Amino acid sequence: MDKDTYQARIKRCTEMMKTEGCDILLLTKPSNMQYLTGDGRLCAYAMITTDAKVAMGVPKTDIEDVKQGAFFHHIVGFEDEVGMIHSIAHYFEHFNLKEGTVGLEFTFLTQSMMGIVTHPHAKPKDVMPKDCTPILSGLRLVKEEREIDLLRQAAVVADIGMKAAIEAVKQGITESQIAAEAEYAMRYAGAEDFWRTYLSSGPRTGIAHGLPTNRKLETGDLVMIDIHPIVNGYSSDICRTVCVGKPSNGKQVAYNLYLKAQQASIAKAKAGIGMVELGEAMHGIIRDGGYGEHIFGPPIHGVGIDFEESPLPPGHAFFHGEKEPPPLPVNVVIAIGNCGLYTDSWGVRVEDTVVVGQQEPIVLTRYPYSLEVK
């Protein structure tokens, strides 16, 4: 991203800060820092003022690295947590902020980290903390065209990872080994990282988000593969379910029903649709197909820098400290198929990353759908 992009984002941010009553933001969540400064690393922070000034604090070892690509007006290095606290105090003094409100990411900060950023030696006593989660979520909701391009690149890598994983599916291989094939392929295709891989088989596909184990695949097992590469700072989310050998009729029927529901929801991902309506498009078909008791959780979430971000369905949003999302505008990016159809002994799930379009949706993840491995 170029300097103009960050300046435009910060300008929008300051407008939202004024509306929400925040005099300054103190950000520590890497994805939020990345969005506004171009650099999101752990053990660092960014401060944004209402007059669009950006200050950063990073480990002193990292200053030159941050200078290579980040957008900021001030930067300081620190050696440890005590130094971090003092550097925050320095910026409050520099910006002459002795009272008012400081926006903090309540849903990201641990209790100990909250103690650091609100320490009496960091924050002036008359500056009151306020949750700024909704500001950053609203700011990042609609993706710029450059962001869509980056999300498309991440989807290509996700497809490559899925291909490698499915090609590895055979009797006797472990879940962990399949995950390794996917992760290696994604790294080799350009992913600099990935969010946690979910991979389960046999009876373990009946749980919501199974992490890979050393369980060996058996003939007739379903295998649920859910991968999330990060490419140039942006994520993708794809899930496919396949069978070791020929699936039973019951598994095939359930898979066909879930895929039908997921595709119906994707078809509705157009400007003006609501998250509840999108979710109901999936759940309604599954209920009508006789599997209403086997639905778990909201099937849709946002995708961007994080593989799960705003927009979120209303109930899910509440527990993430988010506001209920409005009807979705063009260029919101979502994953459809987040939660599956789970029985007592197995489950099926299919998920894709989709751009909300004006006339029709744009599906970014393109790996083919088939329960039976060809």
Q: Report the CATH architecture of the largest domain.
A: Alpha-Beta Complex
CATH homology superfamily of the largest domain:
Creatinase/methionine aminopeptidase superfamily
The rounded distance between the terminal residues' Cα atoms is 41 Å
Encode the helix/strand succession as letters.
Answer: HEHEEHEHEHEHHHEEEEEEHHEHEEEEE
- Flag low-confidence runs: none
Principal-axis shape equals elongated
- Strand tally is 18
Q: Count the helices. How many?
A: 11
Task: Report the radius of gyration as a whole number of Å.
Answer: 22 Å
The top-level CATH class of the largest domain is: Alpha Beta
What keywords describe this structure?
single chain; 374 residues; alpha+beta; Creatine Amidinohydrolase, Chain A, domain 1; Creatine Amidinohydrolase; 2 domains; 6-stranded mixed beta sheet; 4-stranded antiparallel beta sheet; 11 helices; 18 strands; elongated
